[in-house]
Specification:
nine-stranded mixed β-sheet, 1 helix, eight-stranded antiparallel β-sheet, Jelly Rolls, mainly beta
Length: 261
């Protein structure tokens, strides 16, 4: 059952109330719904274009495209960033994001944060899978599928039906639906693949080489995913934001975030 802790946000529909669409990727098993726990956090999340207006202390390393899309998927490698804690607002996140023309969005990835809460056992220096969307505007943690540095996770965001978008995790050989939400658009006008670093005090900390691989997109009007390569135009790669930069191993589907000396 998909549940959200009580708070002043709209309630997500339970899995029994949802109609899961057929997966867009061939051969994917039927969805099995998992549990997310939502927490009020000291930091709200934003797409790159919004966050960089708010403060220069957000850093985004990766790329985005404004080509019309219906899905994105990729493999995110989990590392152990040197996020300061406790009771800090800093965070690192590897994530994929899809945004509509009105600025609403959904994202999925993994993160390490400088704050914690009871839902995550009051633990620090740990990595967690999360989903975030502009309807609920809160971090929603996947406490069912635990991860740690050295692992990799495969995640996906896809259009489901109407204005509903779905965030999925591939686990034990199956796609598991973590979250489905109406975010008021049916075709994404901006798609992002970023390592996101937030350093509100300006004391930049070390992020080890953190890889993204097999990043694939579902172009609007097409039926199957394809690698995010140089045929996906326009693609806008990030510039170095010292001390963080990106190294492209294959534009734009295999790369890593790194910290410059």
């Amino acid at each position: 059952m998909l549940t959200v802790a009580a708070m002043s946000v709209p309630k997500i529909r339970a899995a029994s109330e949802q109609t899961a669409s057929e997966p867009l990727m061939p051969g994917v098993p039927a969805d099995a719904y998992s549990t997310l726990e939502a927490a009020e956090a000291p930091v709200k999340k934003y797409p790159a274009d919004i966050a960089t207006i708010l403060t220069p202390l957000w850093h985004y390393q990766g790329a985005y495209t404004s080509k019309l899309m219906r899905g994105i998927a990729g493999v995110l490698y989990v590392t152990n960033p040197s996020v300061p804690y406790p009771n800090r607002n800093d965070f690192y996140a590897s994530r994929l994001l899809m945004q509509g023309p009105a600025g609403t969005w959904i994202e999925i990835g993994w993160a390490e944060t400088g704050w914690t809460d009871w839902r995550r056992g009051y633990t620090y220096n740990q990595q967690w899978i999360y989903v975030y969307d502009s309807t609920h505007n809160t971090w929603e943690w996947d406490t069912t599928h635990r991860i740690s540095s050295g692992q990799s996770i495969e995640v996906q965001i896809r259009w489901s039906s109407g204005n509903n978008w779905e965030a999925l995790l591939r686990w034990s050989g199956q796609w598991v639906s973590l979250h489905i939400v109406d975010i008021s658009f049916s075709v994404a006008t901006k798609t992002e693949e970023y390592g996101e670093i937030y350093v509100p005090a300006g004391d930049h900390w070390f992020v080890p080489n953190t890889n993204f691989a097999s990043v694939r997109v579902l172009v609007s009007g097409e039926l199957t995913y394809r690698l995010w390569d140089t045929s996906i135009t326009p693609t806008i790669p990030s510039q170095t934001q010292y001390p963080y930069t990106v190294t492209w191993l294959a534009q734009y589907n295999k790369w890593y975030v790194q910290t410059l000396p």
